[in-house]
Fold:
Amino acid sequence: MRLKFFLITAIILPAVFCAAKPAQLPELTVMSYNIRLGSADDGTNSWQFRCPASVLMIEDLKPDVIGVQEALLPQLLFLDENCRSYDYVGAGREDGKKKGEYAAIIYNKKTVSVVKWGTFWLSETPEEPSKGWDAACIRSSTWAVMKSKASGNKFLFINTHFDHMGENARRESAALMISKISELNPDGLPVVLVGDFNVEYTHPALSPVTDSMKNARKIAAITDSSATYHGWGKASEVIDHIFYTGFRSCTRFETVTKPYAERKFISDHYPVEAVLVF
Structure:
């Protein structure tokens, strides 16, 4: 009987261990989305007609964190009211309160929490509302130290919107971004930087960022080469990016071209999404 027991054990135990699946490493799904400011007169593409599509997109893809650019306060309040699992942090770029466009961070309250957050401006005086260098507009960034509720992992998330005209402003903004990451991240947390950078990732202006961080589009195991800015079907540029550092890997990158609410375009930019592994 003892021999029989040992033989059965020798057969069953290896089978059990072989059948056991390895524990899945914790993931974080992040998105960058230029939502197109709600005050723009875009005819049938104006915010009043396409706003439900943004809600449906968020509810469908369920990203953990979204960096939105060009959002005005009424747009953020609309998303806040209709995407019940989500909240946001951010400030209007014109006064650091509610005036002007937001580079806000929208987050899924069920999956992540905000430890602390703040705003800085892309200028020589980043602590106050200001226009920098040769920029055409005041530009700002929102940052947040966040925590994954499932894994307990903390990370730094930054959302930004570089100037569309100032060549020097974009170059200096990229250098400022790396400096601010060092300042805001003394504990060496994983970092995610998303935004509308208004240049392709190969542009020399982004060198401070691309030399220091990984490009999710290039690194991801599953990815695409689709344009992100389409100008309602009239353009084709890759200017919305997701950069990261401190994560194990990026398993997927996607340019979200899927239509929602029977609308071909939910904005004049396609959202971009990446799945990062802690």
User: Anything to note?
Assistant: The chain has six helices and twelve strands. The first strand starts at residue 27 and ends at 34. Confidence is low (pLDDT under 50) at residues 1-18. The helical segments are 2-19, 47-61, 73-82, 167-184, 207-210, 216-219.
